[in-house]
Write a sequence for this structure.
């Protein structure tokens, strides 16, 4: 059942990640936590692509969650680290 959903999950993950990545600043990526976040994003995409080979309901949810969470961290890194009290908007 999950093997048929894999291409749609991969496509949705890439689209969501592209929308988030548009607003990421280059200087946020060039830090230690930024490098690890990019590595986590790549690992998330790899886990998501493994759904084409293996049928596993945990991987189909874990991979996109990891990829999107790592990019969201990069996007809102300054607000998270400075304990910002402002609301976090995706399109600010």
């Amino acid at each position: 059942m999950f093997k048929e959903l894999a291409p749609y999950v991969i496509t949705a993950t890439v689209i969501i990640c592209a929308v988030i990545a548009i607003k990421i600043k280059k200087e946020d990526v060039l830090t230690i936590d930024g490098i690890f976040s990019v590595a986590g994003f790549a690992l998330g995409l790899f886990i998501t692509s493994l759904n084409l080979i293996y049928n596993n309901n945990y991987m189909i949810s874990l991979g996109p969650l990891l990829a999107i969470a790592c990019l969201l961290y990069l996007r809102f890194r300054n607000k998270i680290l400075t304990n910002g009290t402002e609301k976090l908007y995706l399109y600010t």
